[in-house]
Write a structure and sequence with these properties.
With 90 residues, the chain is mainly alpha-helical. It contains three helices and two strands, in the order ββααα. The chain has a single domain, classed as Fe(II) trafficking protein YggX (YggX-like), CATH 1.10.3880. Strand 1 and strand 2 form a beta hairpin. Keywords: Iron. Could be a mediator in iron transactions between iron acquisition and iron-requiring processes, such as synthesis and/or repair of Fe-S clusters in biosynthetic enzymes. Necessary to maintain high levels of aconitase under oxidative stress. This is Probable Fe(2+)-trafficking protein.
C-alpha cells in the first residue's frame, strides 16, 4: 500500500516516498512533505549539479552546497541554476 503526502513541491497530494532517503530532521521533513515524483526531479537536478560543478561528495562543503540547493528546490520553489543547461521546452 503506497502512502500519500501533500507534496510541498508539486503543491498537491501525491505518492509519498517508501522510506526516509535522507538522514536527520531534513530527511524526516522530506519523507513527510515530498512525493516520489518531486524526489525523482531533485535526483535529476542533483546529478546535473554534481557533474557540472564536479562536486566531491566526500567533501563536507560539497554536501552542504547540495543540501542548500535541495532545500531551495524542494521547499522554496527555487529552480536549480545549472550553467549551460537549458531545460527542454515542452
Amino acid at each position: 500500500m503506497s502512502r500519500t503526502v501533500y507534496c510541498q513541491y508539486l503543491k498537491k497530494e501525491a505518492e509519498g516516498l517508501d522510506f526516509q532517503l535522507y538522514p536527520g530532521e531534513l530527511g524526516e521533513k522530506i519523507y513527510q512533505n515530498i512525493s516520489k515524483e518531486a524526489w525523482a526531479e531533485w535526483q535529476k537536478k542533483q546529478t546535473m549539479l554534481i557533474n557540472e560543478k564536479r562536486l566531491n561528495l566526500m567533501d563536507p562543503k560539497s554536501r552542504e552546497f547540495l543540501e542548500e540547493q535541495m532545500k531551495a528546490f524542494l521547499f522554496e520553489g527555487k529552480d536549480v541554476e545549472i550553467e549551460g543547461y537549458t531545460p527542454p521546452s515542452e
